[in-house]
Amino acid sequence: RSSPDVFESRMEKRNEVKKQPVGHSKQGEFIRCMEEKARPIFFAEGLGSKTSKGAFTKDKTLDSILNVEMVKEKSAEEITQIWNQYFSAKDTVYAVIPADKFDLMWKRAQSCPSFLYALPRKEGYEFFVGQWSGTELHFTSLINVQTQGETAPSQLVLYHYPDLQEEKGIVLMTAEMDSKFLVVQDAQCLANQVQLFYATDRSETYALVETFNHRSSEFKYMSVIAELEQSGLGRELRPGQASDKS
Fold first, then answer.
1. How many CB atoms lie within 10 A of CB 139?
2. What is the rounded CA–CA span in Å between residue 178 and residue 50?
3. Which residue of 45, 150, 195, 199 is most buried, as measured by CB atoms within 10 A?
4. Where is the stretch described as Disordered (predicted)?
5. Sheet with strand 125-133: strands edge to edge
6. Domain-by-domain residue ranges, the chain?
């Protein structure tokens, strides 16, 4: 009563506090902000963001993801740890590929840029076509290719970054996928098959890739499934069974 102006001011502040969402804490925000500033900023903001809803990032460079200059002083082991630790919290596929293995994959991709992959389903398999475009590997379901041809949309893109290959001996990989059609386990299965078929030491396995590209009339779909079953991927990646990210 003696100070009505002060009373009204206090009531306004009280109402503002009530309007704040449950769990809101300015002090908590401040602490998080300071922690972020104290931590080395290896990765760019907006990682994995797409150019538009439902579209994949065009010309996705390593610089748009990783602070390349900052990690140049790091060893290959340290960069691997940074990359894996960061992406382990992301709902995506990622890998660090040894330079010699990527060299083999890349050389083979030049002469055999496409292949047919089999994705285990509850009943049987669903086939996907993988097509290399530079260091990007685009996947779409076989049914899309059959019905839409060259206009078939990508449902998964694996991005390979050889920026550190010569200096550090590693190639970084991550991905974007259309979550309406694929889950991370599906994308991981397809990514594992790329190394199975393109980085294999078994001539019989890579012969399937060569046949698909150069003697398509001789190619048999079931040969891919047989190779998956023999490698263990077909059994290990059945729906409902866990698979580790690489």
1. 26
2. 11
3. 199
4. 1-23
5. 94-98, 170-177, 156-161, 136-141, 125-133, 114-120
6. 62-233
Place of tokens 């010569």: 166
- Cα–Cα distance for residue pair 10/4, rounded to 1 Å: 10
CB 209 within 8 A of CB 116: no
Residue whose C-alpha is closest to residue 154's, from 142, 138, 135, 134: 138
pTM value?
0.74
Q: How many Cβ atoms from other residues are within 10 Å of residue 227's Cβ?
A: 20
Query: Which 3-state string (H, E, C) describes the chain?
Result: CCCHHHHHHHHHHHHHHHHCCCCCCHHHHHHHHHHHHHCCCCECCCCCCCCCCCCCCCCCCHHHCECHHHHCCCCHHHHHHHHHHHHCCCCCCEEEEEHHHHHHHHHHHHHCCEEEEEEECCCCEEEEEEEEECCEEEEEEHHHHHHHHHHCCCCEEEEEECCCHHHHCEEEEEEEECCCCCCHHHHHHHHHHHHHHHCCCCHHHHHHHHHHHHCHHHCCHHHHHHHHHHHCHHHHCCCCCCCCCC
pLDDT along the chain (246 residues), means of 10: 59 48 42 43 42 58 88 93 91 95 97 95 90 94 88 93 95 94 93 96 96 94 91 56 39
> How confident is the model over 118-154, as pLDDT tens digits?
998 888 899 999 999 999 999 999 999 888 888 889 9
